[in-house]
């Protein structure tokens, strides 16, 4: 087929999660509740950190930005997923596809860098407590946050630029509930090998770099914690770091399976399960994990409730 005819295909159909009518209402209600809890939890955490002055320290500054990114990731996909359960037409244009993936790629990459920055912050706080105010200054915190945003922006722009080389002519069916980049590769008429390579190189490099940063930060942290003679000190350090160590594998696991080996033969349903986990479930869990296991956050929340109730 001629290339000029291939470029005419610019409308796609998202298959969604299910074609069975009896599952549409239960799934709609389930994801609606998840989304409302996610937004309420993350925005409440942001508001708490913003209003409580004793939480205006680097650790909670990063946590507030992580909550913002989680709300962003969830809002990129979940509203469209909810509409798709009852919409007669599930069409989406190529431009809308690119915008949705751009939003997801920016926010997901930001979360990777934020998790690494949070690990570095805990390393300085526990291993070099006397130098903490000197190292983790407001200027350095802002620099880390801006770098996370610019890194996510560059990563998203890169993949959207490489999407321009692809044409679509044979199929307009995307077997997914949102416009992810890998399903687009699978229906492209143009050989997507270069695009797969770019995903493997850049997504893989970002994930490996941030995972190594977390690992290198926490290895000395664990040794420092174990050298503490006070049981109370050990518990306090583990309660501070344990939440982070819990959220890191939960977030990185599905991302590694999805994007570091995108050329694998894994099925579309498996891809959707990975996507559901890191785009909908993780943003729901993060504010719960970081709030319930953090004494300062709980105490601040109790104080706010006492003042207002």
UniProtKB/TrEMBL annotation:
The alphabetical list of record keywords is:
Cell membrane, G-protein coupled receptor, Membrane, Olfaction, Receptor, Sensory transduction, Transducer, Transmembrane, Transmembrane helix
Q: Which residues cross the membrane?
A: 27-50, 62-87, 99-120, 141-158, 196-225, 237-260, 272-292
One Gene Ontology cellular component annotation held by this UniProt entry:
plasma membrane
Q: Its topology with respect to the membrane? A: Multi-pass membrane protein
Signal peptide per UniProt: none
**Matching SUPFAM superfamilies, A to Z?**
Family A G protein-coupled receptor-like
Which GO molecular function entries does the Swiss-Prot or TrEMBL record give? Answer: G protein-coupled receptor activity; odorant binding; olfactory receptor activity
* Pfam families, sorted: 7tm_4
> Where in the cell does this protein reside?
Cell membrane
Q: Which domain of life is it from?
A: Eukaryota
Domain G-protein coupled receptors family 1 profile, first and last residues per copy: 41-290
Membership in a protein family: Belongs to the G-protein coupled receptor 1 family.
Q: What is the role of the protein in this entry?
A: Putative odorant or sperm cell receptor.
Name of this protein: Olfactory receptor
């Amino acid at each position: 087929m001629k290339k000029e005819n291939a470029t005419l295909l610019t409308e796609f159909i998202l298959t969604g999660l299910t074609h069975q009518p009896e599952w549409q209402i239960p799934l709609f209600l389930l994801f609606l509740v998840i989304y409302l809890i996610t937004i309420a939890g993350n925005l409440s955490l942001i508001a708490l950190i913003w209003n409580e002055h004793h939480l205006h320290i680097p650790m909670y500054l990063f946590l507030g930005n992580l909550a913002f990114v989680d709300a962003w990731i969830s809002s990129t996909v979940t509203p469209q997923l909810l509409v798709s359960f009852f919409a007669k037409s599930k069409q989406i244009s190529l431009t809308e596809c690119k915008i949705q993936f751009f939003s997801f790629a920016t926010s997901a990459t930001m979360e990777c860098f934020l998790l690494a920055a949070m690990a570095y912050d805990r390393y300085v706080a526990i291993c070099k407590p006397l130098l903490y105010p000197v190292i983790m200054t407001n200027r350095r915190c802002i620099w880390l946050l801006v770098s996370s945003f610019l890194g996510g922006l560059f990563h998203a722009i890169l993949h959207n630029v490489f999407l321009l080389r692809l044409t679509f002519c044979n199929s307009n069916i995307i077997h997914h509930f949102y416009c992810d980049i890998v399903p687009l590769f699978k229906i492209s008429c143009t050989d997507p090998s270069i695009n797969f390579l770019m995903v493997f190189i850049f997504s893989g490099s970002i994930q490996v770099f941030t995972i190594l940063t977390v690992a290198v930060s926490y290895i000395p942290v664990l040794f420092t914690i174990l050298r503490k003679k006070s049981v109370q000190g050990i518990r306090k350090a583990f309660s501070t770091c344990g939440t982070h160590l819990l959220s890191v594998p939960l977030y990185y696991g599905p991302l590694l399976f999805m994007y570091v080996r995108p050329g694998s033969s894994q099925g579309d349903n498996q891809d959707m399960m990975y996507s559901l986990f890191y785009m909908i479930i993780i943003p729901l869990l993060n504010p719960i994990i970081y709030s319930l296991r953090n004494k300062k956050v709980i105490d601040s929340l109790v104080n706010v409730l006492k003042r207002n109730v």
